[in-house]
Amino acid sequence: MQYLLLIYTQEAIEAALSPEAQAAYMQGYFAFTKEIEDRKLLVGGEALQSVTTATTVRVRAGKTVITDGPFAETKEQLGGFYQLDCANLDQAIEMAAKIPGAEHGSIEIRPLQSYAPPA
Amino acid sequence: MYPRPAEYNTGVNVYPPPDAAASLSAVIEATFRAEHGRVLGALIGALRDFDLAEDVLQETLITALERWPQEGLPTNPAAWMVAVARRKAIDRLRRDQALARKQALLVGEFERERAGAMDNDPLEPEAISDERLKLIFTCCHPALAADAQIALTLRALGGLSTAEIAHAFLVPLPTMHQRLTRAKHKIRTAGIPFQVPAAPLLAERLAVVRPVLYLIFNEGYAASAGDALVRQDLCAEAIRLARVLLELLRQTPAVGEDPETLGLLALLLLHDSRRAARVDAQGELVLLEAQDRARWDAAEIAEGTALLARALAQQQPGPFQLQAAISALHAEAATAAETDWAQIVALYWELERRLPSPVVALNRAVAVGMAQGPLAGLMALDQLRLDDALSDYHWYHAARADLLRRAGYAHEAHAAYERALALCHNQAERRFLTRRLAEVATDGLRHSG
After folding, report:
1. Which of residues 33-92 of A touch B (CB under 8 A)?
2. Where are the domains of chain B?
3. For B219, B254, B334, B335, which has the most beta carbons within 10 A of its beta carbon?
4. pLDDT, tens digit, for every residue of A29-65?
5. To 10 degrees, the CA torsion angle through B130, B133, B139, B143?
């Protein structure tokens, strides 16, 4: 089963890390990525630019409305994601708990919709 | 609720004799309920589909109600149920072209059935494997909400109908139906596994399962509103499920006799032993200290304390063992005055250390009040950090009122009872608090007069 692991963290916490802590944090991500590659779970994944670069688009009554920033003011922001192919939710949970961002932020696990191929 | 055959899940089931045709349908329903977890587990194992397994098991009950009165009870009802339900599932999948993909999964089953294996050979009792432990871990998966874990466990393992669960939890039927449907949808869609977690995860997941059984028991034990019989059945069901869990874990090589699960079962039995004495003839709540100890169930106390001793011998104390130990100290005291409160205070400290909670702290303060007098109890109570949860908790104010009353502060006690009453919505508890309020009002007059 495929899962999207959405990484929500407080950018302020990550920005406040000392250079050494920052390096260790990144090292954690490299190690995690290597593990999921080695275990053949990785389908894809990306880190996102800061939420300060976000733009929200809505179309209302045919009119495109553009606003600065994310659509909701939340404490934690989406900072990146992994797409994994896991045996089941337990394995997805096991992997989510290993994402460095889980230690101060939270990981939302969402199973991907799969549409049956047309008969 | 249906009568339930005596069943202690050691693989030996005792069915009531089918003495009259009229009672036969009751026997069939009782048999289905007793075997529900085992059969549903086997079906989910084979079909990998919770909903389908439940649906065909329901249809199988209808078939049994038609056929058993003529053919008699099968030698091995559970095996019969699995075989018939599996055939129904195969038929249904064959009919339903939209589920062609799942049909492929069942080709093996289908081939076996076509070869006549299930029609001709009655299955041996050992032929259906016990998948209930997997089912317990699926129903109590931490990715499901607590109320859904409870409802699913009662539905799948206990064989209670959605209507019965809704009735027991005072929830409208459509709400409970939606809760169960949503949980089963998540199991399927989010890939919640049907398996016993591997060793590193097992302890963590067991720590989710035990409180589910405890909450089921508590729902039946707390004399809130509702049908007394239904609630009594929840207690019995929780005890039965705790026995099943204990036995299944005992058969699991990596676990053996799990001390906290022993502690849980001991706790449930010890609490349950006092059920008859908790309510008087008028249906009013009787506090522990005022209960008629002769009405405590001696057999449950004996079993509970024996289980606790076996748990403690493993020297891995946990919250359920500690709570059972506290309950056992009450059970062992011949009179309320002989209760070893000092030991109870020590156990509450240990429990609070492992399971910090305002309610545990409150109970500790109450025990201090018993061990060292009401003033010491009030001091312990005042040291609690009064967060919102506790300041809105009617038992906090009731406990405070009781300590104030015993310390001779009738006026303050009166105010605290009034605060407790304002926060309490349970009718039996409200009547109890109203009586106490009236007592301190009289005491207050006597002192001032």
Report:
1. 86-90, 92
2. 257-339
3. B219
4. 999 999 999 999 999 999 999 998 999 999 999 999 9
5. -140
